Amino acid sequence: MAPPAKRAARSMSAYMIFTEDQRSTVMQELRAAAPDGKVPVTVAAKAVGERWKALGEEGQAVYRERAQDLAAAAAAALESAHRDPGAHSVCDVARICS
Description:
single chain; 3 helices; 72% helix; mainly alpha
């Protein structure tokens, strides 16, 4: 049986871009406040989610624009890959998305 075909990764959402930007800061703050310096992933995720909600529509719009730009770049790369299969690999397209 042949291995499944590789697919390009989905581009990042606005929330995921925000999470990537905020994660290290949130983790540092939470580790400093934790008595043993350990922070469960669920606590960190909740803290990032609260910050996302606190941004409001205007603050989130910046990340939505970035997500749209990444999605457009990924779509263009994918279209180019379809036109000329040797020009781009799936990895190149996935790299644009992440």
